[in-house]
TrEMBL record:
Classification via InterPro entries: FucosylTrfase_pln, GDP-Fuc_O-FucTrfase
Keywords: Carbohydrate metabolism, Fucose metabolism, Glycosyltransferase, Membrane, Transferase, Transmembrane, Transmembrane helix
Single GO biological process annotation from the record: fucose metabolic process
Phylogenetic placement of the source organism: Eukaryota, Viridiplantae, Streptophyta, Embryophyta, Tracheophyta
Name recorded for this polypeptide: O-fucosyltransferase family protein
Phosphoprotein as UniProt keyword: no
TM helices/strands, residue ranges: 12-38
Residue ranges with Basic and acidic residues bias: 523-548
UniProt family annotation: Belongs to the glycosyltransferase GT106 family.
Top-level taxon: Eukaryota
A molecular function GO annotation: glycosyltransferase activity
Region (Disordered): 523-577
Taxonomic source organism: Paspalum notatum var. saurae
């Protein structure tokens, strides 16, 4: 019989008496297993294991990471569980990349016979000027609505002035980003547009400045703006974003679509560079996903969300949050429960893999400087090693003409995301909404929005389930968030995201429609649904932290706008690229 292990105290130290060789070997083996297990426990989680045919990879550890400071990310490992991400993609194949029902719909923005031509309704001596606000896509919504506002007022629209004073400090003018000639000629029969107001007595007239309420209806424009226009003749509407009602009569909604989807074309340098990026993505893979990540410090600060970085994260993001003086006190738990927090890069990657996109899929990421830097992106890159951005696809020399201008850089991302086979948004802001609307209009191309409210609890508890269970739940929760036709009920949502008045269903496989000329869009030809042959879905659009200029002394402010603070009743609407 083996002797019983006893401990003796020799000179104040505990020692273990000698044991039989077999027992010693057993003890050594056990110790080695403990060391290996401990090493695996502390190792950072990997996205996939090797093998073919969907084989399982290494173990996954509990995911939540701590953002201790922008350049440092560490894992908060509180337990281990088998959570091995399948290497292979879904068996759904083409259905994953596009909807079967997409071919049953088409964009239709032609004006009806009741919509009179501009020359018949435009009144002389009425000039409407617009000063937009925010980043590229927030300004885009302002430009679209400016055309409709001019039509409501039967006024001549002056080419809108872009925002040069906001956070972006971008000095780009309208002509630096958009094709002015195309803009004017495409809308010739809808609204008269000129480059500048004619001089009076040899000098340009000074406009009467005023600001109108948000979501202003046509009646609102007639009651508030028209009297000033009749008296002053030249009126400038300042901070023009979301100043037009979401719900309008059909012809005005269709005019919105003609502006957004046809008249607003990027300049040739931007378009050519964007098309080159798309071509280089196509050369790497026949099809690709574009992800609008939105995990920059400003986005996280604005959202009021918390990602486990302790006092350092609270202090850093809290300082940024002070830019918006009227923001309510943050309640991170509530925001997360309500689905208002962006997913982490890893969570986005896990969602896509759970939906069935394989490790070999090529991913284009449109993003600014990610909070946490490369370490924050590492889990996403492990899940999708074929990771690209405009900075990796183009040389510094090729990007040099665009680098100093945030709006032009955002336009390049816009083109690639618009041309992607699948577009994924991590924040339902201006860029996401506009792109979602464009992709519906141009053939219901796949657009995925995370169901953050449902996914929140799933990500929180994913260490308690297998990968198959997790993937099944993700697929269930994402039903209704995959960009399918009729996913959003008519009349619901923001019009730029869901332009239902401009989407028609095919009847028995036939489309009774005129054959208008083709218009170029990001390297492809699309129908120009116009009323004549000449016509053809928060960059953070900070928007409301921009102070009024010193030349705004005669600006009239609406009663429902708070002085000295933000005039946005729904701040979430301001978030964009």
């Amino acid at each position: 019989m083996g002797s019983r292990r006893r401990r003796h105290n020799h000179h104040g130290r505990w020692v273990v008496p000698a044991v039989a060789p077999a027992a010693a070997a057993f003890a050594a083996a056990g110790l080695l297993l403990l060391v290996v297990a401990f090493h695996c426990f502390l190792s950072p989680p990997l996205g996939d294991g090797g093998g073919e045919g969907g084989s399982r990879g290494v173990r996954r550890l509990n995911p939540p990471f701590l953002l201790n400071k922008p350049a440092e990310v560490r894992r908060n490992v509180i337990g281990a569980v088998d959570f091995a991400v399948a290497s292979g993609g879904s068996k759904l194949g083409q259905e994953l990349w596009e909807s079967k029902a997409a071919g049953n719909f088409f964009g239709c923005s032609n004006a009806t016979g009741q919509f009179a031509e501009a020359r018949a309704v435009t009144k002389s001596n009425r000039y409407l000027m617009i000063a937009t606000s925010g980043g590229l896509n927030q300004q885009r919504t302002g430009i679209i609505d400016a055309v409709v506002a001019a039509r409501i007022l039967n006024a001549t629209l002056v080419i809108p002035k872009l925002d040069e004073e906001s956070f972006w400090k971008d000095e780009s003018g309208f002509a630096d980003i958009f094709d002015v000639d195309s803009f004017i000629s495409s809308l010739l029969n809808d609204v008269k547009i000129i480059r500048q107001v004619p001089d009076r007595n040899g000098k340009p007239p000074s406009p009467y400045k005023m600001r109108i309420p948000r979501k202003c209806t046509p009646k609102c424009y007639e009651n508030r703006v028209l009297p000033a226009l009749l008296k002053k003749h030249v009126v400038q509407l300042t901070k023009f974003d979301y100043r037009l009602s979401n719900r309008l009569e059909t012809d005005l909604q269709k005019l919105r679509c003609r502006v957004n989807f046809h008249a607003l074309q990027f300049t040739d340098p931007i378009l050519k560079m964007g098309e080159m990026l798309v071509q280089r993505m196509r050369e790497k893979s026949g099809r690709f996903i574009a992800l609008h990540l939105r995990f920059e410090p400003d986005m996280l600060a604005f959202s009021g969300c918390y990602y486990g970085g302790g006092d350092i994260e609270r202090r850093e993001l809290g300082e940024i949050r002070k830019r918006w003086k009227s923001l309510h006190a943050s309640n991170p738990d509530r925001e997360r429960r309500h689905g208002k927090c962006p997913l982490t890069p890893e969570e986005v990657g896990l969602m896509l893999r759970a939906l069935g996109f394989g490790k070999d899929v090529h991913l284009y990421v449109a993003s600014g400087d990610v909070y946490g830097g490369e370490e924050t992106l590492a889990p996403l890159k492990a899940l999708f090693p074929n990771f690209h951005s405009k900075e990796t696809l183009a040389s510094k020399e090729e990007l040099a003409p665009f680098l100093p201008y945030s709006s032009r850089m955002a336009a390049l991302d816009f083109i690639v995301c618009d041309s992607s086979d699948v577009f994924v948004t991590n924040n339902n802001g201006n860029m996401a909404r506009i792109l979602a609307g464009r992709r519906r209009y141009f053939g219901h191309r796949r657009t995925i929005r995370p169901n953050a409210k449902k996914l929140y609890s799933l990500f929180l508890n994913r260490t308690s389930m297998s990968w198959d269970t997790f993937a099944s739940k993700v697929q269930t929760f994402q039903k209704g968030f995959m960009g399918e036709p009729n996913e959003i009920k008519p009349g619901r949502g923001e019009f730029h995201e869901n332009p239902m008045d401009c989407i028609c269903a095919k009847s028995k496989g036939k489309i009774e429609h005129s054959r208008p000329r083709l218009i170029k869009r990001a390297g492809e030809a699309v129908e120009n649904h116009s009323s004549d042959e000449d016509l053809d879905w928060k960059d953070l659009d900070y928007g409301e932290h921009t102070p009024l200029g010193k030349d705004s002394s005669n600006e009239i402010e609406s009663d429902d706008i708070r002085v000295g603070g933000s005039d946005i009743p729904e701040l979430e609407d301001m978030m964009s690229d």
